[in-house]
From TrEMBL, chain B:
Organism: Pseudooceanicola batsensis (strain ATCC BAA-863 / DSM 15984 / KCTC 12145 / HTCC2597)
Every TRAP C4-dicarboxylate transport system permease DctM subunit domain range: 12-426
A Pfam family recorded for this sequence: DctM
Subunit and interaction comment: The complex comprises the extracytoplasmic solute receptor protein and the two transmembrane proteins.
Family the entry assigns: Belongs to the TRAP transporter large permease family.
Record's GO cellular component terms: plasma membrane
Protein name (database record): TRAP transporter large permease protein
Coiled coil location: none
GO terms for MF: transmembrane transporter activity
Organism placement in taxonomy: Bacteria, Pseudomonadati, Pseudomonadota, Alphaproteobacteria, Rhodobacterales
PANTHER family: SIALIC ACID TRAP TRANSPORTER PERMEASE PROTEIN SIAT-RELATED, SLL1103 PROTEIN
Localization per Swiss-Prot or TrEMBL: Cell inner membrane
Topology of the protein relative to the lipid bilayer: Multi-pass membrane protein
Transmembrane annotation, as ranges: 31-53, 100-128, 140-166, 172-196, 226-244, 250-269, 281-302, 322-352, 364-388, 408-431
Automatic annotation (TrEMBL), chain C:
Leader peptide range in chain numbering: none
Superkingdom field: Bacteria
GO molecular function, one term: transmembrane transporter activity
Spans through the membrane: 21-40, 46-68, 89-110, 130-147
Topological relation to the membrane, as annotated: Multi-pass membrane protein
Broad class of where this protein is predominantly found: membrane
Job of this protein: Part of the tripartite ATP-independent periplasmic (TRAP) transport system.
Protein name (record): TRAP transporter small permease protein
One cellular-component annotation, GO: plasma membrane
Subcellular location: Cell inner membrane
UniProt xrefs under InterPro entries: DctQ, TRAP_DctQ
Subunit and interaction comment: The complex comprises the extracytoplasmic solute receptor protein and the two transmembrane proteins.
Keyword annotations: Cell inner membrane, Cell membrane, Membrane, Transmembrane, Transmembrane helix, Transport
Length: 315, 440, 163
């Protein structure tokens, strides 16, 4: 009997660290299924743009994808809360706990079900930094600056007085270089260093309050998924959970290595005070509520996250 | 299907369909659709639509209508005709002076945009009528515009360079700096070729009557025709480099400048704006519908593993580092015959870069070689995107055959320059290294 | 048949003539954004996004009429030399490819545009507009391209009868 062959559209560029982890994911699934499930990963943008993968998997062009729910938050409001929440969980482990130990995973599955898609598991990792040309020592310093943010963060940062320009990722370097904007988010600490952001922004602000923790997701076409046997389904879940931990720890370790490189390049690393961030989180709740609107699932997700945050004394 | 068979199938069917004389956009789309149904499954046709949604909202591609509109307004307000008139007077002693001037304008435009379609279509509107009106040999004029129009890839800002830098994980700033000197050397080589060629055969570029007798005062008098285009250029470059606008927004500043210039020359009328808009939509729709077809073609090519056998061959190649490098460049040139640059970067760079690193070549330097092969891909007959973009703005009576003939010498110059940079990497690396040394 | 074909052509000509003005809207929106960011230090959340939403309908609506005026670039090295019936066959092959292109885009774009409307899909930006109106222009333009390609076939064959 031949192996089941799947195509997976991933998020990342070929050769990048997170893409290597997607290749590991596919290897691990092959290993756990004795080769009966053979997934070929495609780098982000190679076949369809990452933001369009949702419809490509629904339509059956791919059997599964690695996606970022933020791309579909315009369709499914709940996805704003299953991807990244500005001023949300400060620790990736807390966010992952919400998925696995609370009802996060169940609600994520629920959000995809009507679209004919099956949510398999998240990959959760920590903050993305803020790069600035001007000193930002506290959240209030951002008031009146020109910043680049996208998604829900663009609305939340605007609520904190930032003049937000939602520039494309490819324009961030030049826009900082030429002074079109004062500060920006882009990718993770390592990727931004490799693009040379330290050459154009002399301050690196931590924690990246606009994106303190992030979840990307393995999602399959329900029709294709239902034709898998139990071993294959279990293999997807096991491999996904392994990759989540492994990538997160890789990022933690790389962050340490690369923060040193930023300092060697003359970048000052500024740590925002925990109380300052916590106070801002309280204010951000209003933006969260606006984003959830009247959508029942989005509201449930938000309330479930807020409940855990309150128990952890984050709110 | 075997991946090498897919490669042969898609390449040959492209050539065959293309020769039928059907619109290029539909040829690309039709082959993509047939291959998708045969090799991937009919449901995957959805991919063409999803890619189109993305094309529809591309901030970078929006530079195309803006630069075409700017060019069209400038052209219709007699400002460009005056500029070429002046160039004719200034360069009356230089062989092929207008074509050299065109290369100079292309170089300036390259510093404004990195979207090749925008530059070539704009130059086709700006430069071509003036050169043809003065009896320039059409292939020479067409070749100069095609080659000059691709300079924007190397000279910053450039979308292709940014995508390469992001995929190769190297500094965008260094990659930009690395392109400047090679870009200028290429421009200089094009100009040198034009001067030598027209010196050997003056009939290719007729000089004006009383060529030698133009007094200095007459030359100076014509200098004022430089003011308006100069101000437009200043507005665009100034708004980019002073941090006022993104490159695409700067193109809108250029349109404003062109319209203001048209007011000065009293040519700004509603019918003129209407004609300029019609030109713009014609050219933009032509380029973007090709883009829709091309994206569909690349998707199915990648998804079915069309290039896998080529890439695997390079990966397993055990030969001297220079032979491996040569093979990589040849693969890039071959894929460039029928894929677009962004597609090639996403496909090849992740495979080639580890090899480049193992062979201890500089990824920055390899990036510049890559950008030059990208320029070559844009002008290689029979399938080079600039050739088609330019064809779309050609006056009646000029066939694509003449465009094909025109680009061949410029293609050969690119080959020579490519070899030059391969042999002397410091030509590429000294500027970025000097800049980063100064920053420390 | 010929009357219908000419009607389709007239419709696409009209849409082309209307759509071309959108480029000035794009210019004004971009300039407005530059001014509001640079002069008043307050970039709008909507101007650049509205410009990108107009860009798609702008170039899509140009495509069908471009087919009529021969504006879609082709390699004419061989077809230029063809004469009589063979030239006509080559022309019709080209229009069939264009019709197939339009038909397939239409077939797959309609459900996606409808779903976008059902979801009330927004762009999830600070401005957060619904985006189905922009998406709907793809099936619309595809349908118009299909119709124009069929019209061109009718007009090409009609030439023969007249001759
Ligand atoms: Na450029
Ligand atoms: Na080519």
């Amino acid at each position: 009997q031949g192996a089941t062959k799947w195509r997976m559209q991933a998020l990342w560029g070929g050769g990048t660290t997170p893409m290597l982890y997607e290749e590991k994911f596919c290897d691990r699934v092959r290993e756990l299924t004795g080769g009966s499930l053979d997934i070929t990963p495609f780098a982000g943008g190679q076949i369809v743009p990452s933001a369009q993968a949702f419809d490509a998997v629904r339509g059956g062009a791919f059997e599964m994808m690695k996606t970022f729910d933020g791309y579909t938050a315009g369709k499914i409001k709940a996805h704003g809360f299953s991807s990244t929440v500005p001023f949300g969980f400060p620790d990736a482990d807390q966010y992952e706990a919400w998925f696995y130990e609370r009802d996060g995973l169940a609600m994520a599955k629920e959000s995809y079900e009507p679209a004919g898609l099956t949510y398999i598991a998240p990959t959760v990792y920590g903050e993305e930094p803020i790069h600035s040309k001007v000193e930002i020592r506290k959240i209030a310093d951002m008031d009146g600056l020109k910043g680049r943010f996208v998604g829900l963060a663009s609305a939340v940062m605007a609520d904190f007085g930032v003049s937000v320009s939602p520039l494309p990722t490819s324009e961030v370097y030049s826009a900082l270089d030429k002074g079109l904007i004062d500060f920006a988010d882009r990718g993770d600490i390592k990727a931004n260093y490799e693009e040379g952001i330290h050459e154009v922004a002399k301050y690196l602000i931590l924690p990246g309050v606009h994106q303190p923790s992030t979840a990307t997701a393995y999602v399959a076409n329900t029709g294709a998924y239902s034709r898998l046997d139990d071993q294959q389904k279990a293999a997807l879940e096991v491999a996904a959970r392994e990759v989540s931990g492994a990538l997160r720890q890789n990022i933690i370790s790389a962050n340490g290595e690369y923060l040193k490189k930023y300092q060697e390049a003359g970048v000052e690393i500024i740590d925002l005070a925990a109380e300052d961030v916590a106070e801002a989180r309280g204010k951000a709740v209003e933006s969260w509520k606006a984003a959830a609107g009247e959508d029942p699932l989005a509201k449930r997700m938000m309330e479930s996250q807020m409940a855990l945050m309150q128990e952890l004394r984050l709110l | 299907m075997e991946s090498s068979l897919i490669l042969v199938f898609m390449f040959t069917s492209l050539v065959v369909f293309m020769l039928s004389g059907a619109g290029l956009a539909f040829v690309l789309g039709a082959i993509a659709f047939i291959s998708t149904i045969l090799l991937w499954g009919p449901s995957a046709l959805i991919v063409a639509v999803l890619n189109t949604f993305e094309t529809m909202t591309s901030e970078a591609l929006m530079a195309i209508p803006l630069y075409v509109l700017m060019a069209s307004i400038l052209q219709k307000s007699a400002i460009i005709e005056a500029l070429y008139d002046a160039m004719e007077t200034w360069f009356s002693g230089v062989n092929g002076g207008l074509a050299v001037g065109t290369i100079a304008i292309c170089t300036i435009l390259a510093a404004m945009t990195g979207v090749v379609g925008a530059a070539v279509a704009a130059m086709g509107i700006l430069a071509l009528p003036s050169m043809l009106a003065r009896g320039y040999h059409p292939p020479l004029a067409l070749g100069a515009i095609c080659a000059g129009g691709t300079l924007g890839i190397l000279i910053p800002p450039s979308v292709v360079t940014i995508v390469y830098a992001i995929t190769a994980q190297i500094s965008i700033g260094k990659m930009f700096a690395a392109g400047i000197v090679p870009g200028l050397i290429l421009a200089g080589s094009y100009a040198a070729y034009i001067v030598i060629r027209t010196w050997l055969n003056p009939a290719l570029a007729p000089k004006p009557e009383q060529a030698s007798a133009v007094p200095l005062s007459a030359k100076l008098a014509k200098t004022k025709s430089l003011i308006l285009p100069g101000l437009v250029v200043l507005g665009v470059l100034g708004s980019i480099y002073a941090g006022i606008a993104t490159p695409t927004e700067a193109a809108a500043v250029g349109v404003l400048g062109a319209a203001a210039s048209a007011i000065v020359t009293r040519k700004l009328t509603l019918p003129m704006l209407s004609e300029a808009a019609a030109d713009t939509l014609r050219v933009t729709a032509m380029i973007l519908w090709i883009t829709i077809g091309a994206r569909a073609f690349i998707s199915v090519f990648v998804a079915t593993g069309g290039a896998d056998s080529l890439l695997n061959f390079v990966e397993t190649l055990e030969a001297s580092r220079w032979i491996v490098l040569g093979v990589m460049v040849l693969v890039l040139i071959f894929l460039g015959l029928f894929l677009d640059e962004i597609g090639i970067i996403l496909l090849c760079v992740p495979v080639f870069l580890p090899i480049v690193t193992v062979l201890e070549f500089d990824p920055l330097w390899f990036g510049v070689l890559f950008m030059i092969t990208a320029q070559m891909a844009y002008i290689t007959p029979p399938f080079g995107y600039t050739l088609f973009y330019l064809k779309g703005v050609l006056p009646e009576g000029i066939s694509i055959g003449q465009v094909y003939r025109g680009v061949i010498p410029f293609f050969l110059i690119q080959v020579v320059v490519l070899i030059l940079f391969a042999l002397f990497p410091s030509l590429v690396t000294w500027l970025p290294e000097m800049l980063s040394a100064r920053m420390k | 048949m010929t009357a219908i074909a000419e009607g389709i052509t007239a419709l696409n000509r009209l849409l082309f003539a209307l759509a071309k003005w959108l480029v000035y809207a794009i210019v004004l929106l971009m300039l407005w954004e530059v001014l509001s960011r640079y002069l008043v230090q307050a970039p709008t959340s909507w101007a650049p996004e509205l410009a990108t939403l107009i860009f798609g309908p702008f170039f899509l609506l140009g495509g069908p009429y471009l087919l009529h005026i021969g504006g879609h670039v082709a390699v004419d090295v061989l077809s230029e030399r063809a004469t009589g019936g063979f030239a006509k066959i080559l022309k019709i092959i080209g229009f069939i490819l264009a019709a197939a292109f339009g038909a397939i885009l239409l077939w797959f774009a309609v459900p996606l545009a409808v779903q976008s409307w059902e979801y009330g899909e927004t762009s999830y930006s600070a401005w957060n507009p619904v985006i189905w109106p922009a998406k709907a222009f793809l099936p619309l333009a595809s349908a118009l391209l299909l119709l124009q390609a069929l019209a061109e076939i009718v007009l090409t064959l009609g030439d023969e009868e007249a001759a």
